[in-house]
Design a protein that fits this description.
By secondary structure, the protein is an alpha/beta fold. Helices cover 23% and strands 21% of the residues. A 7-stranded mixed β-sheet has the order 1-2-3-6-7-8-9, with no helix packed on it. A two-stranded antiparallel sheet has the order 4-5.
């Protein structure tokens, strides 16, 4: 059975390209070639050639030829604007440098190099999805990018350009509230958010200064057709400010502040001695039972499902010894 390496319908043809590294691990790339759009119908030109709106226009718009009463044959191309080149694009998944040799030597890319591309096709965009920005320092890959021509927009989707963000505010706020009540039972993990974009963006921009580049973000829109409305639009890009409100940000700021003094958020609990309620060292060798959660039905945003945690102190040696009795 032959392997299918493309998909095609009336709207688009998608070529599937397989690349591999020296461990024979594979990744796929895709070349999208939309069906070429026909030019705009020119009714005034059709009338000049003797065509009748009710008798001939519909056939001409559908790409069919018409025959006038005097026997003259009118081709649809005679009354249409020049067809617009198909706005094609490539999505290239290249996890790391180990795939570069396979990608740059793959013959399926050759027909889309600037010197070879068909006149009815125009490569508008090359989307690079990678985990490491190191591939943009590799001269082989940079030369591969140059072969597509200077007008191609290179969209860079790189893990090393992502900025780590806090998104689950409600869960973090709930943990913070629990931690305020009883720090020993609800310790908070320290957060070390890394701004990869700030650290690496300047380096990548230096390597890619000869190319037209766009750096991928969640919500970015890139329109290729029609030409009048084509472009890159960022009005729907998801910003950190969209994920937080003022109250939530106050909580996050407190969590990120490692030197903040631990204080109870409840006036009712402010005078409670938590260590007397749940002693740290007293009854050290006795079994412990901890009732977790506040309800036994569906969890809510401020309450979790019930559970019972039982801790029986002792190590493996004590357990092995107890079995001898």
């Amino acid at each position: 059975m032959s392997r299918i390496d493309y998909f095609e319908d009336n709207e688009v043809r998608v070529e599937i390209i397989s690349n591999s590294n020296n461990k024979n691990e594979q990744t796929l790339s895709y070349i999208w070639v939309p069906t070429q759009k026909r030019g705009k119908f020119l009714p005034q030109e059709a009338k000049k050639l003797g065509c009748h709106p009710k008798l001939h226009f519909k056939s001409l718009v559908n790409g069919e030829e018409v025959i006038l009463p005097d026997g003259t044959v009118i081709q649809s191309d005679q009354v249409m604007e020049k067809p617009v080149p198909s706005e094609s694009f490539i999505i290239n998944f290249i996890p790391d440098e180990s795939y570069i040799d396979s990608v740059v030597s793959n013959p399926k890319f050759i027909p889309y190099f600037l010197e070879n591309i068909h006149k009815n096709t125009q490569l508008s965009l090359l989307y690079h999805s990678t985990q490491s920005w190191e591939i943009f320092k590799n001269e082989k890959y940079l030369e591969f990018m140059r072969k597509f021509g200077p007008n191609v927009n290179h969209v860079i989707d790189c893990k090393d350009l992502n900025t780590e963000r806090i998104t689950r505010f409600k869960a973090m706020i709930l943990s913070r509230q629990y931690q305020n009540v009883c720090p020993r039972l609800y310790p908070l993990a320290s957060l070390n958010l890394i701004d990869h974009r700030k650290n690496n963006l300047a380096k990548i921009e230096e390597n890619l200064k000869e190319f037209k580049t766009t750096f991928a973000e969640s919500g970015i829109n890139i329109e290729l057709y029609p030409p009048k409305s084509s472009g890159t639009f960022t009005h729907e890009v998801i910003k950190q400010s969209h994920l937080e409100n003022e109250e939530e940000q106050k909580v996050i700021d407190k969590i990120l502040d490692k030197n903040e003094e631990k204080k109870s958020s409840s006036e009712i609990l402010k005078n409670f001695d938590i260590e007397n309620i749940i002693p740290e060292k007293k009854f050290k060798n006795e079994p412990e039972i901890l009732f977790c959660g506040t309800i036994s039905m569906k969890p809510t945003s401020s309450r979790c499902a019930s559970g019972i945690y039982v801790n029986i102190p002792g190590d493996k040696a004590d357990w092995e010894e107890s079995k001898n009795f």
